[in-house]
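Hey Z.,

So I finally got round to the beta-D-galactopyranose thing we talked about over coffee. Here's the setup:
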Amino acid sequence: MASIAQGKIWKDEDGNAINAHGGGILYFDNTYYWFGEIKKGKTTRAADIRSWEDYRVEAGGVSCYSSKDLLSWKYEGIALASAKRDTSSDLHISKVIERPKVIYNERTRLFVMWMHIDKYDYSYARAGVAVSDKPTGPYHYIRSVRPNGQMSRDMTLFKDDDGKAYLIYSSEDNNTMQICLLSDDYLSPTVTYNRILISADREAPAMFKFQKRYYLITSLCTGWDPNKALYASAENILGAWTMQGNPCTGPDADSTYHAQSTFVITIDGKKNEFIFMADRWNKTDLENSRYIWLPLHVENGKPVIVWKDPWNPDKQ
Ligand code: GAL
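And the result:
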């Protein structure tokens, strides 16, 4: 791609549409690795669910793309495959595999992927973990958990400067988020966790850090439909977190540009250069969902997302 064209089809180096939704980025060895949900095939709506629009595709697993410049993306294949036959597997195509995020563990030298694992009706509410000795995978699936017995749906990972890593997830029927410190090998939740954004109905968490302050951008819970993003900030990662305003500016800021947060890429923390990654879902044709990536910087303690279309991250 010559530049980021918001909401258009983005093609990889082979000319195929990039299929990496609800994604996240790992920066390792001067390379960006983009992991995301493979959404392929027909979108159907679960007929037995009336209270909300449960549109879904078969779980396609997790894709991986790599890039040096965030524009030209090489397809690295399926990092974590879904399971076609074993109906009891967390990764069976009838399940939900969403919002994969990967971090690198310096001690074990392993790449650790966490993701939202669910049943078609979202009643399972668990966090799955997989591991690989190469950034691109294949990842070996270990298990899913409910951290400290708590529900876990939309989630993200955050690795702090001191090497500690955290799982941040919508819990308590999506009413309240929680943040849980992971074990030193990043493979298990610890008993250190806190309830945050209490009764605020937030999901789609994307966290970053700037000048020792933590920021968490989230959406309201309205399924695949867009709504207004809000950010929260905190001095200590485990809280207290204070809900603040909408970080989006410009046209369609109140619907997050018809999209939903998924990740914030740190380009250069010192230079205050970040990228806000969001999904513009197409709920009745999920494979045709698109990406919105916009410049984000912090001004007087407030994250500001600026609409730019087209946009070249080099010229931020
Ligand atoms: C959204 C969530 C998505 C997906 C969807 C299912 O609220 O952010 O990741 O789970 O619900 O309806």
